[in-house]
Amino acid sequence: MQLAEIIGFISGILAQVEEPSLIGYLQQKFIEGGFFMWPILGCLVLGLAFSIERFWTLSRATVNTKKFIVQVKDALQKGGVSEAIKLCENTRGSIASVFHAGLLRADEGLDAAEKAIMAYGAIEMGFLEKGMIWISTFIVIAPLLGFTGTVQGMIQAFDAIKEAAQISPSIVAGGISVALLTTLFGLVVAMILQVLYNYFVSRIDLLISDMEESSIELIDALYELKTKKS
Fold it and tell me: How confident is the model at residue 230 (pLDDT cuts 50, 70, 90)?
């Protein structure tokens, strides 16, 4: 079978899947899952909301570190500390904010500038990690709600068997199938949020690493500037 035939075969299968029927199927399973599907859905919605906010914040906090360091060094060489401060004020991002805090204390000495960089760097780290605890919380709560819903569904299934006074395959299979829906939904929600959480953690670690390395280069640049003036 050639590649074109395979693509045509897959396209034919996909064409047979109607979107409204898929949505209707998901809605039906959601309703069958019972009450616990709603708090799990709430975990997904809130988790995605925090994820969108973190994505926007981290995107604004990210700059081209190497290019910015070169610009700061050029500003220090041409116009001194005041010119570098203006550059930082007109540049967005965590590194620019940390540089700005250090340059404001540069006139007091390298030690004061380094302490200001460390202090403001800790503040920026807290800002970057803000809201991450909530995403982590929803990752934990979603599957727990799913398991709780499953336990409740199993209890209802066994109650149905008790009332029927017989172990019917249809009663057992149907009850267990419905009971497992909350676990499935909870695990899917947790996996989605976990992927996003890991992505944000990697972005934050990269930003912190860039801040630490660039801060060292800024202190070295200030030291060279001080040496030239001496």
Answer: low
